[in-house]
Design brief:
Radius of gyration: 27 Å
Shape: elongated
Oligomer: single chain
Distance between the termini: 75 Å
Number of helices: 2
């Protein structure tokens, strides 16, 4: 009577295909999990730094002062020094007619919230007059915000 026709299953529905699929999952799932385990804390800290930068940029500039940078500030998260903590730093370059003391006094009274609690440290750097300056004949200042938190799971901070 009739022989049953041989039906060839597609590769992914065969036993060999199932082994390949399960093996690929066993390799990919831990790799994807590890990626997210590393990146999610970094994304959270990047959001904290971006919020700190936004708060500073929302604060009005001192009188007779303008930003020289036309892009984002120089901002970073890293472990500076030793210990298990995260340091958040952002710097802006300004052209100003104010003295260093006047700029420092202006930012000493600024109410800018830090990364988690309390105000950040604000430092004013002034360039020494020089013929080889990038901004000859101008009074240029760098204003730096600096704050810190515990490292958490961010590998940049351990």
């Amino acid at each position: 009577m009739g022989e049953k026709p041989i039906i060839k299953r597609p590769f992914w529905r065969s036993r060999k295909g199932a082994y390949v699929f399960v093996s690929a999952l066993m390799i990919l799932l831990p790799a994807v999990g590890l990626f997210f385990l590393v990146k999610i804390p970094q994304w959270a800290d990047d959001a904290k730094l971006a919020a700190l930068v936004d708060r500073f940029e929302s604060y009005p500039l001192p009188p007779k002062t303008e930003r020289l940078d036309y892009s984002e500030p120089d901002a970073s998260i890293a472990l500076r020094g030793n210990g298990n903590h995260c340091d958040y730093r952002a710097r802006w370059t300004f052209r100003t007619q104010l003295t260093g003391t006047e700029l420092a006094e202006y930012y000493a009274h600024a109410r800018i919230e830090g990364v988690e609690k309390g105000p950040p440290s604000i430092t004013v750097w002034l360039a020494e007059p020089s013929k080889r300056s990038a901004y000859p004949g101008e009074s240029v200042a760098i204003v730096e915000l600096y704050d810190g938190t515990s490292a958490g799971l961010d590998l940049r901070c351990t």
